[in-house]
Amino acid sequence: LPKSAASFGTSKSSVSRSWVKSTKKQVEKLQNRNLAALDIVAVFIDGKRFSKLGVVIALGVGSDGTKHVLGIYQSSTEHSTACLKLLEDLERRGLPESDLLFVVDGGSGLNKALNEKYQIEDTVNRRAFRVRCFIHKWRNITDVLDEKGAKEAGPLFWAIRDARDMTIAKTCSDALEACLKRHNPSALNSYLEAKDDLLAIHRLQIGAQLKKFFSTTNPIESLNSLLEEDTRRVKSWKKGEHFQRWLATACLHNEKRMRRIRGFRTLPALKVRLQEICKSQEAVDKIGTAA
């Protein structure tokens, strides 16, 4: 305490000024650090509300399995403009322009931004790949199914994710479609809307550990929960600058607590597979030569 008093004092205003100064540095660190050195393979993006304020957050996974908070963009909702602005800022700071895996929850704004920037739905010219969160889609399906239908459809739905390869996954998908058609056409339509993005996980040709990790948005939702816990004592946000200082500080604090993902040793192989899917043959040749 004496050392603190000698440096900046112990009054409320002194401590507050010191906190503002230090958290401003955290915003600058988070929003300006070079992303090229992180060698990002996959990106999770999600929106989060804190009282009346909202933010879009990007969480990346490097080729060594380490998770990094890539950036934040303050926005009232997770609409396409906000997501696109965030993606452009990440690319400006070194995020690869192509050959990325995006894991999404199905939000229309984010999907629109990804299509606009990476042509994800264009199988010839796309520059990135997208998979859908199984947990979010299952919640959507069960919202309209009765108990009997959910009990019958559940094993078939999760068998799609856990299938050994695409052939088995498609067989499970056909069985699920028949089941949903019997119980509730609305549930069937909900599944069909996301079918391609759900089956897409098998196009990556990854092992069971990575398949489980990349088939949900749990990693970024866990981050959101930690951010909510760290900011729970703030009763009101005075302005956007106040909000971003706290959020950036919490992001960098929780980044240190994140564990390396299981199965990370096969991430370089996933990177090559993404390059093949995105038609980046020149990059594939370079990596093959280096190997």
What layout of secondary structure does this protein have?
Blueprint: H1 2-7, H2 12-32, E1 40-50, E2 53-62, E3 67-74, H3 80-92, E4 100-104, H4 108-118, E5 128-132, H5 134-142, H6 147-162, H7 166-183, H8 185-199, H9 208-214, H10 218-230, H11 240-255, H12 267-277, H13 281-290
Parallel strand pairs: 1-4, 4-5
Antiparallel strand pairs: 1-2, 2-3
Helix pairs in contact: 2-11, 3-4, 5-6, 5-8, 6-7, 7-8, 10-11
Fraction of residues in β-strands: 5-15%
Nearest-integer average pLDDT: 90
* Distance between the amino and carboxyl termini: 56 Å
For the CA atoms, what is the radius of gyration? 21 Å
Q: Specify the structural class.
A: alpha/beta
H and E string = HHEEEHEHEHHHHHHHHH
Largest sheet: 5 strands, mixed
Oligomer: single chain
> Helical region count?
13
By DSSP, the count of extended strands is: 5
Uncertain residue segments: 280-285
In one word, what is the shape? globular
What is the helical fraction, as a range of percent?
55-70%
